[in-house]
Amino acid sequence: MNLRTSFVFLFGILLLVWLASILFPARTARAFPENCGLHPSNLFRNGSMAPGHNTSYGTVALEWTPFVITGSPRFEWVDNEKWDANGAQYFWSDSVPFDAGIYQTVWGLQPNVYYRFRIGYSHARLDPGNAKNEVHPSMGRQVGVDPFGGTDPKSPNVIWGPALFNSTAGMNPPDLTMTFAARADKATMFFRGIFTGASGRAKVWFDVACMEPLPDMPTATAVPATATPPPPVPPTRTPTRPVTKIAQGPTATATPLPPTATRTRTPTATSTVTPSATPRYARPGITPTPSLPIDPATGLVTGAGIVSLVLGFVSFGMGILLWTRS
């Protein structure tokens, strides 16, 4: 094979590589962007935790309702610890243990169809009195869902994910993501902060709540609601970090924490405040957009194709040059 033939052969190979990168681009996963709280496909109302309304526990983000299982934490809307411009939900207590959080009921779901939700930004810290928010073993976070749409966090129908204690994870921790099958036309999602007691101010922040349908998953088998609640059991601290917890049905485990210190405020059982706005219905047909305007994997392959094309033209030009000289 002479030099001219070799260059023509090399050009042909490079041209085929370029055409393959154009005709068969790399497949990429479609998902919510990082700040999915403001995404139009988000099934949560006010997933960005914009300021809202006053309750008997304090100020709570619009469309969200507080709940208190034990203790008497104070709820506030803040803009000093947040992910987006709309601020975040915050609640705290000085040295007194608590088990509390916020919830929202999403309507218009399809029974036995799978959905996924997460809290995209959250922190649980303790300020021991030195004006520093520190990770502490007494501070935990947890997410749960009542797939039947009930609003009682102590109900045996609530499926709780793993309790995330003593963790620095703030952005999209896998422990605070859940996949579940809806058992009615509505479901209630709970975001929970747990403080087991220590000297200092216990602080919890929640921001960027996101929920989406999973139409590609098979339909789940219908499961009846649990009739008799089991005795309460404290949440289990687990070091494991599953990527996604898949809830197959209501569990028989309820996880309220008993108080471990003398209460300094008058506790109340559960909130009676209801969301002030009309529920927005789920739109399972909407496909979330990719998290970035340009997908890195596709861009990488396309870039390689462009480089290959340039090299092909260079090789072709050198081949013509050598051919004419010979």
What does the model show?
Strand 1 (53-55) and strand 2 form a beta hairpin. This protein is elongated. It is an alpha+beta fold. It has two domains: 3-26 and 300-325; 36-247, Galactose-binding domain-like (Jelly Rolls). Strands 3, 6, 8, 9, 10 and 12 form a six-stranded antiparallel β-sheet that branches. A six-stranded mixed β-sheet has the order 4-5-13-7-11-14, with no helix packed on it. The protein has a two-stranded antiparallel sheet with strand order 1-2. The protein has helices at residues 3-23, 296-325; strands spanning 53-55, 58-60, 65-70, 74-78, 88-94, 98-107, 114-127, 139-146, 159-160, 164-165, 177-181, 186-195, 201-213, 245-247. It is built from two helices and 14 strands; from the N terminus they run H-E-E-E-E-E-E-E-E-E-E-E-E-E-E-H. Mean pLDDT is 74; it is low at 24-32, 227-246 and 248-304. Helix 1 runs antiparallel to helix 2 (296-325).
